[in-house]
Amino acid sequence: MGEQDRELDVAPEWWRWATENLLRGVPERLVSEQLQAAGVSSVQAKELLSAIVGSPIFLAARPFARAARQHEMLARLKQRMASTALDPTGIPRRSGVSAAELRDVYVAGNMPVILTDVVTRWPAFGRWTPAYLAETFGDVAVDVTTGRLSDPDYDMHAARHTESTLLRDFVARIDGARTETNDFYMVANNRVLERTSLGALLNDVVLPDGYCAAQRLLGSSALWLGPAGTVTPLHYDTSNILFGQVYGRKRYRMIAPFETSLFDGARAMYADRDPEQGSMDPVLVKDVVLEPGDALFIPVGWWHHVRALDVSISLGINSFPFHNNFDWYRPSTVA
Known about the structure:
Its cofactor is Fe(2+). By secondary structure, the protein is α+β, with helices and mostly antiparallel strands. 30% of the residues lie in helices and 18% in strands. The chain has 2 domains: 2-78; 85-333, Sandwich (Jelly Rolls), CATH 2.60.120. It has 9 helices and 12 strands. Residues 1-6 have low confidence and may be disordered.
């Protein structure tokens, strides 16, 4: 297009503008009218549009642009429909959800739900406290993340902040925290259930029939333990997760994957926006507090930001008895 650009004497920004609008499906007639309104002669506009639509590059880009428009329309439809809910920022609380309903309604529908009668049936509920863990497993060496406040990307760099300590000493550190802190935390990446005798804790977890594949529970569960004030930044996961809140409370802010503006600036699975720092408008944020005994179903792809409101013990499980690994989005592949 370089030689034609010079021959037509049309500024490069008009070439770009016309190409973008044609790829968006704007009729050539309307594009031509706008060009002429901006001072481009009718002859130049006609030749410019002819050069663009006849370009092999434009012809190759057109089907991709058409697919992008279709997905944009679908995302806008989902956004508008989500906003019509009676409580668009809430998450339904349910009891008595069978494995079939969980799968057909919430997994297949990619919708979060708080299950109020799952964790409360675990022997863990009422038993797991920091004191119990320290007394029963105090001599177990566990990996925890520390020095998180020194690194704005602490969650992405968890391996850099990992150190080993006795569980008894870690609980004492939690007990000694006089104020909320995000500086130290036992997070899922440390995989303490698999690597230590803490795996015995799963004997205190009894899920409804059909909820999970019991033989994979050990390798597909994660224990979280930390003080009030710990924060997991806004991110998504590539699997569905059942998150059981055993002790303390956590505040969840969740955003559906059809809010595609969060892709902009994302690194790995982390968004570059913080629901605690300024407005998230126009993105719709679901904002809920998990109480002790609640289980939150987190659908794959849903962005979520988590803050512990109290000293907290949580268990994440993703050993569902169906395919549950969705490598659905990589920021490096979306320009």
